[in-house]
Structures are given as C-alpha cells and as structure tokens.
Amino acid sequence: MGRAIAVHLAREGAQVHIGARRGAPAELTSALVEEFGDRIRFARLDVRQTESCRRFVAEVLDGRGRVDILVNAAGVYEEAGIAGHSDQVWDDAIDTNLTGTFKMIREVMPAMVRQKWGRIVNIASVAAHQGMALNGAYCASKAGLLGLGRCVALEGAAHGVTCNSVSPTWVETEMLKKFIDAEVAEGAPLAEVRARYEASNPQGKLVQPEEVAALVGYLVSDSARALTMADYQVNAGSLW
Question: Could you say which of 138, 197, 218, 232 is catalytic?
Fold first, then answer.
C-alpha cells in the first residue's frame, strides 16, 4: 500500500520521500526513479526509534523547506493467543503500528502548524473496529490509531492540519501474498487458497493497493479541507 500511495502522489505532482526500516529494495528503487527521477527519494527509517524519525523529517525539511503530507503506512502483523502471548509480538505491533505513527506525527506537526497547512493519513485496518481471535496485539494497535487520530485532528484543526485514517480489509499486498504462499507450500492448491481470501468479503474480490491509494490521494488534497477526525473503511462490505 505504501508503494501504491507513493506512486499515486508522485503522479499527482508531489515530491515523495519514502522511509523503510530495511531500506528500499533495489528493484523498487530503480523502477520508481526511472519513472519519477528525484521526485521520489528513499531513506532508511525505523519508526520505532525517536532519533530515526527525527533525522528522517529533518532531512526532508532541510531539502524541501516544508512537509505538507504524512502518510503512516508502516505496519507489522503476527498472530498470537492472549494466553502465553510473548512480549516481543506485543511490543513490535504496538511500537511499529501505533507508537511509530505517533512519533512521526510528533515530528511533522510543528512544521505543519507553522505553515498553516498539513494532511496526515494513518493506515489503520478494519481490525480497528472488529476483534478476531489470535489478533489482540494487531487489533489493539490499529484501534489505538483511531483515538490518536482524533486528538491530532482537534489539535490541528485551527491550523489547517487534518488527520484521518483509512481502514482496509484484506488488500492484495506482499504481506497477503506471503500468507497465500505459505498455505500453498503446505500443499493447498493456489486457486483454492486465493478463492477463499476473495470470498472473505461480499464483493468476492480482493481490494487492490491502488484503490486505497486513490482514497488517500483525495484525503490529502485541497478539496478535503473539511474532512478530518474520521476513519474511512475500504472493506468491500466485510467486517474484517
């Protein structure tokens, strides 16, 4: 989703800075640079680390002079039951999905307030609204984004800064492909596994990253000035 959002915004004329914990894969970097040149730049960013967030935003401000849009798309997912739940799984979900989002917002908020314009979008999940067994850490982290976003929206309202979240159901991303590949590796037919995921929502089709990106593109536009403190579900009619 992060890649699709970056491409969408770049095509709309934005100068895009992508941060990733492990850095950008070479094939992704070369493909995007070929299409957009220096309108898309890459840097290593670990949203769990305060100094990493501070350095990333400072470099953008030094190079561009302002930050207009922040899209928090970093996220991790790992299942675990509450009984015997490890601290590591819990901490990684909360630190990445929720605290990392808070840290990035904290870094860009002063600049957005000074310039009297800003758009913040957090990628949440339908898991922010619905529970599921073995997903306590993930659901808690995503639900926390909704509360955080409401507070940010209220603090930014008088300064032209909006904050919204987008909550997708299953999206056909690399993460989902890994889940499908894992089942196929255990002997399940690919067509059968894919069909089960597609049937998980009433529309019978997997949501595509570009569909999420299109919504984000509108939420960060001038036309969306009055849209703030809200969560928009891209759920294809599904509760999860």
Answer: 138
